Amino acid sequence: MKKESLMTIPELMDFLKVKRNTIYTLRKMGLPTVKIGRSVRFRADSVVKWLSDLEECASAEVKGYLSDNTHLL
User: Strand pairing partners for 40?
Assistant: First the structure.
């Protein structure tokens, strides 16, 4: 079994180079977490995959918007 460490909120803040409030906002948006009792932890690979999926979704929305509104260009 591959041993993978879990990040705390301060560690995730450093990993993503964002402030604490941004982490809470991302959690409300669906950022994957691991709950251990009252503690919240984050898997780096899950966070990166979630952000990548979010980026793909945003990119698809922009492409859809542009194709629907070509008359504006």
Answer: 35
